[in-house]
Amino acid sequence: MRRTTGMALLSPGGTWEPFTVVRRELRPDDIAVRVAWCGVCHTDLHAAHALAEGAPPLVPGHEFVGEVTETGSAVTAFRVGDPVAVGGVVDSCGVCPACRDGEEPFCTEYPTEAYGGTDRIDGTPTLGGYAREYVVRESFAYPLPAGLDPAAAAPLMCAGISTFEPLRRWDVGPGQLVGVVGLGGLGHLAVKFAVALGARVAVFTTSPGKEAAARELGAHEVVVSADAEAMAAQAGRFDFILDTASAKHDVTPYLHALRVDGTLCMLGIPDRYEPEPLAMAFGRKRLTASAGGGRPRTREMLDFAARHGIVADVEKVPAREVGAALARLERNDVRWRFVLDLRDLD
Ligand code: ZN
Ligand code: ZN
User: Fold this and answer.
1) Among 115, 129, 178, 230, which residue's beta carbon has the most beta carbons within 10 A?
2) Beta strand residue intervals within the chain, DSSP E
3) In the structure, what pLDDT confidence band is assigned to residue 271 with cuts at 50, 70 and 90?
């Protein structure tokens, strides 16, 4: 077994403490990654809130970058010293229809998640990238393109792929008007990707104060969603709307904003949403949802990000201060993603 230092929540409602994380010895197709930067995702916050009494310590983190420090005997894609990125899925069955289609997040045996999952071979629980070292199958690690700032690139591996996948799946491009609901970790990357894909982009936000920030990210229009008159004026305009808001909210105004055959895609996974049936029927609207992206799309996303110079806007935080960062994330007090600096953790 290999030992490294991570940051863990030891008990529900407790404090975040440095914690000895045990990693497996390298299998033939494994690489060891010395993690430098790990993004702080809303999922990590949910996992912290969901930690049960008596559960093993929580080590989150599913968007991280670092350097390859060791390779298993059968590894061919990486060499020691290579910059590497890892996201939310670290293994899958490889043979089901979803896996054969490169849709590993939807593996019928359920994919192995970077943390909170169970290793397919030894049955141990997976611990995430809030740690100085991670061990992963080479086929679920990605070369980090040169030219991207590593800290700012880390969030591409969850927030980035989560937004890029539906934009590509629904063929967002030139000549289209695209809406992005919510400006946060997901939303700010959705704006950057949609603009780079050639679409005209409007941000829907509840906060008028975010207008300047939205325009700095490249948005062409800003709609204050709390303004009923402004929302009514959007009727029938949009080809595609990506909804990144995670709090419960009314989706029907966004269905009204779509043109005929337009698509509203939910990314935020609120507890429930209740589209008005008539608002879907009138204009043959589509309501869909999305979660993550497979390996081919992840490679495409990294290549696209490198060509267009797209990374997240990040605030770097020493790993030991993760508790404070999560508390601020809960208040939406971040522009737009916290990234933990793991480099001085050991
Ligand atoms: Zn995430
Ligand atoms: Zn599968």
Assistant:
1) 129
2) 2-9, 16-23, 30-40, 64-71, 83-86, 89-91, 112-113, 133-137, 142-143, 177-181, 200-205, 221-224, 238-243, 258-266, 286-289, 314-318, 337-341
3) confident
Q: Give the residues across from 84 on adjacent strands.
A: 66, 143
Domain extents for the chain?
A: 2-158+293-345, 160-289
Q: Which CATH superfamily is domain 160-289 in?
A: NAD(P)-binding Rossmann-like Domain (3.40.50.720)
Q: How far is the CA of 97 from the centre of ligand 2 (A)?
A: 7
Q: Predicted confidence band at 246 (pLDDT cuts at 50, 70, 90)?
A: confident
Please give the distance, rounded to the nearest whole angstrom, from the Cα atom of residue 321 to the centre of ligand 1: 19
Q: Do domains 2-158+293-345 and 160-289 have the same CATH topology?
A: no
Whether residue 59 contacts residue 127, with contact meaning beta carbons closer than 8 Å, is answered with yes
pLDDT digits over 76-98, tens only?
Answer: 999 999 999 999 999 999 999 99
Each residue of 115-148: pLDDT tens digit?
Answer: 999 999 999 999 999 999 999 999 999 999 999 9
Ligand 2 centroid–CA 288 distance in Å is 22
Q: What is the DSSP-derived secondary structure letter of residue 142? A: E
- Within 10 A of 234 (CB to CB), how many other CB atoms are there? 21
pLDDT value of position 268: 81
Residue 346 has pLDDT above 90, yes or no: no
- Give dist(CA 135, CA 128) in Å, integer: 10
The arithmetic mean of pLDDT across residues 330-339, rounded, is: 94
| Cα–Cα distance, 171 to 209 (Å, whole number) | 31
Q: Could you tell me the distance, in angstroms and rounded to a whole number, from the CA of residue 234 to the centre of ligand 2?
A: 41
Q: Which CATH architecture has domain 2-158+293-345?
A: Alpha-Beta Complex (3.90)
- Give, as residue ranges, everything with CB less than 5 Å from ion ligand 2: 92-93, 96, 99, 107
